[in-house]
Amino acid sequence: MNPIRTSLAGAALLTLAACASTEPAAPADPPPPAVSPEVAAMYGAVDDNGHHIPAIDPHLLIGDKTRQVVDYWSDEKPGTIIVDPHARYLYQVQRGNKAMRYAVAVGAAGYGFTGVAHIPYQRDWPSWKPTDNMFATQPELYGPVEAGLEGGIDNPMGARALYLHNGRGDTYYRIHGTMDPASIGQATSAGCIRLFNQDIIHLAGQTGSMTKVIVLSEAESGKGTVPSGQPMPQPAMTATDQTGGTT
After folding, report:
1. Residue of 86, 165, 192, 202 marked catalytic
2. Which pathway is this protein assigned to (predicted)?
């Protein structure tokens, strides 16, 4: 072997080794944010009706995304559900100017109804079928599930669904769980009003048949969050947000 070539090869290897040894290490993944034991328990893994719901990633529980009792001023009787799609919150009225607040994701259908309705029934782990419009506009996405999906962790309806009716019958407006917990608090391109599966199970457990539901318009957004007579806060979401986000 040519001694000069051998020396050059050895020098090149030493140079590469030196470069490798001085190259900075890749940054480590940031640690998950600290959550209280109470929050960790609320959003831990759940086995429900034969389905396993994974724990919610702590990174998704920051800010105001966890369910909590908040100040809320309403003349509605306790148990009433008030949906504020433009602020991406759902409230269940409690006594003493309080409400249980849940963060929600809002799909395009979540803006398709406003006003008063009721919940004649709810379903555990409901089945789901894409609408004709979904299939027509995105056949490559919805074609494989055109016949529908049985209830399960990969079903877009999640662990529970509350069905809203009014004097004209089914509004086709649903409050339900989700297969995509990262969407909570966001505007999404499909669906109605979705909650973490842990939250929809909690809400469904507090909701009886014929519970009254009020869905606020954009002009009403923020209603109840301040005492009567005070100016309402600006909605967190603009009209251009309504088509953003994920499916």
Report:
1. 192
2. Cell wall biogenesis; peptidoglycan biosynthesis
| Residue tagged active-site, from 19, 51, 59, 176 | 176
Is residue 37 included in any domain, yes or no? no
Q: Is residue 171 part of a domain?
A: yes
Domain at 162, CATH number: 2.40.440.10
Which structural domain range is residue 85 located in?
62-128+156-226
The structure's pTM equals: 0.80
Domain count, the chain: 1
Q: Mind listing the pLDDT tens digit for each residue in 110-167?
A: 888 999 999 999 999 999 888 777 778 888 888 888 888 999 999 999 999 999 999 9
Residue at 190 is within a domain: yes
Catalytic (active site) residue 192 = yes
* H-helix or E-strand spanning residue 119: strand 115-124
Look up residue 94 and give its two tokens: 């409690």
CA–CA dist 63, 59 (Å, integer): 10
Strand pairing category for 46-48 and 51-53:
antiparallel
